[in-house]
Design brief:
The complex is a heterodimer of chains A (about 240) and B (about 90).
Chain A lengths: L1 H7 L36 E2 L3 E2 H11 L3 H15 L7 H64 L2 H64 L2 H25 L1
Antiparallel strand pairs in A: 1-2
Chain B lengths: L19 H7 L4 H20 L7 H17 L1 H4 L9
Classes of the chains: A mainly alpha (about 240), B mainly alpha (about 90).
């Protein structure tokens, strides 16, 4: 429909060597697709031998009996002038033709029905194939439309993907924050531990030094005095305990 | 307003009897033309009587009748001797 018009709008082709452009090509709109269907019945034939057109040709001048009179006259002329010679072949032909005509009259319709059935089957398979092809194409069209409808939802898909990416970024950011925090805390803990350790060591050292000095400063004299004092105290205490009991 | 159809393009049924000679002389008698004429005639007969849905007997029987007539004509010189009378 639109293609031929577009093609006609092009400039006419130059007459190149092989193609003779004297004959116009494709001037009509006629095309052979779809193929026109076969005619139902063939040309009419009367008595199986003479086409109907001959009778119609003679009808205006001689009426209905014209062709038959012509046939009779022709036959008599052929016989009388012996252009058709009656010999043994004539007898054979008469017998054979009688048998053939009888057989056709008797078995004709059955053979015709059988042939028609064969044709029907062929046509039915072809039509089935055509219908199946059309059906397949219809379903293909449906599928295609569905796919097009599905493609419209791509905005949702991209939103979901964007959400995913944002979540990943967020997670990564938080992980790194945590790492920074823990690293800093580790360093600060280290410093605190160092300070604590240092103070503890200083304390221990000082306590030790003080103890050492005190122990050193306890002279033997002081030791004896303190032991005697302890004994006196213990005796007093034991007296008091005896009194209590 | 007479339609100016060339003599060589007219169909046989439209040719007047007096023009028959010139019409016949104008036909294409090259081998290609003869083959084209045979092809045209065959396809006309075929598409009218044989290439139909419900073909009848006439399509085949006319061909056989034509063959019978043609073979009779070819063997007439031999059949002539079977004639019953000499003078007709």
């Amino acid at each position: 429909p639109s293609a031929p018009a577009a093609l006609r709008a092009l400039p006419p082709p130059v007459a190149v060597g092989v193609l003779h452009t004297t004959r116009p090509l494709h001037t009509t709109q006629q095309s052979l697709a779809p193929v026109p269907p076969l005619p139902e019945k063939g040309g009419e034939v009367r008595h199986g031998l003479i086409p109907e057109e001959f009778f119609q040709f003679l009808y205006p001048k001689t009426g209905v009996t014209g062709p038959y009179m012509l046939g009779t006259g022709l036959l008599l002329y052929l016989l009388s002038k012996e252009i058709y010679v009656v010999n043994h072949e004539t007898a054979a032909a008469a017998c054979i033709l009688t048998v053939i005509v009888y057989a056709i009259k008797k078995f004709g319709p059955e053979v015709a029905a059988f042939a028609d059935k064969l044709n029907e089957e062929k046509v039915a398979t072809a039509v089935a194939m055509k219908d199946e092809a059309i059906q397949t194409l219809q379903t293909a069209i449906e599928e295609e439309k569905k796919e097009q409808w599905r493609a419209e939802g791509r905005s949702y898909l991209f939103d979901a993907k964007r959400n995913n990416v944002a979540m990943l970024l967020e997670t990564n950011y938080r992980e790194r924050l945590l790492m920074v925090y823990s690293e800093v805390k580790k360093r600060l803990d280290y410093q605190v531990a160092m300070q604590t350790l240092k103070r503890q060591k200083e304390q221990d050292h000082m306590i030790q030094w003080v103890e050492k000095n005190v122990v050193q400063s306890i002279t033997p004299q002081q030791q004896k005095e303190s032991i005697a004092k302890c004994i006196v105290d213990l005796k007093a205490l034991s007296k008091g305990a005896h009194a209590a009991v | 307003l007479p339609s100016a159809v060339l003599l060589k393009d007219m169909k046989l049924m439209d040719v007047k009897l007096g023009q028959l000679g010139s019409w016949l002389a104008m036909r294409d008698f090259t081998p290609g033309g003869i083959m084209g004429a045979i092809r045209r005639g065959h396809s006309r007969y075929y598409n009218k009587y044989i290439n139909v849905r419900k073909g009848g007997l006439g399509g085949l029987s006319m061909v056989l009748a034509g063959y019978i007539v043609l073979s009779y004509m070819w063997s007439y010189s031999h059949i002539k001797h079977d004639r019953r009378r000499k003078y007709h």
